[in-house]
Structures are given as structure tokens and as C-alpha cells.
User: Fold this.
Amino acid sequence: VQLVESGGGLVQRGGSLRLSCAASGFTFSSYAMNWYRQAPGKERELVATISNTGGTTNYADSVKGRFTISRDNAKNTVYLQMDSLKPEDTAVYYCYRPIRKNWGQGTQVIVSS
Assistant:
């Protein structure tokens, strides 16, 4: 099983980024997927979840209305579109398959003020 995140980087306040997580080694379309993040000195927190079909999504209150989780089961990829970014969104973002507790290596997002 592999989860490989990409798309992180440095962006100014109010900017946008789209993170991708490419999955392999399992039947991607059968599993719900999550995005987590961990800021320096803080615990890892759940950002967004998506069901296996993409029909159900949930968000942390801190990102609701600004972030959008989606998936393309034909490409075995889950996305996190992040808009209206704030400095407090600065963190390492991780892709996660909850049922088997698989983590990606993370991708760094830095939002400058």
C-alpha cells in the first residue's frame, strides 16, 4: 500500500492550493479516505473525509467553506482543494486510509501573511 501526497508549497494569505494523494496497492474505490494536518507543536487533526463513492464528505469547522475534498476513483487519487488560505492553515498535510490506518508521507503547506 502506498499513499503519495503532492501539491504543497508556499502561498500567500488568501491564495489557493490543490493537494493530491495518489493511492496504490489496494482497491481505492472501496475505501473512504481522509485528509489530516499537523501544525508545528500541535497534534494531528482531521481536516476532511470522503466516502468511497465521493457522495459523502465532512469537514472540520476550521476549514468548512474554504476546503473541498474530492476523489477520482479512475485515477486512484483523492484531492484537497484549499481556497482562501490563512496562516493558521500552515501544516504538513497527510492522506489517510482509516480502515487500515495507512498514512502518506505528507506534504508541507506554508501560508505567509
In short: The mean pLDDT is 97. DSSP finds no helices and eleven strands in the chain.
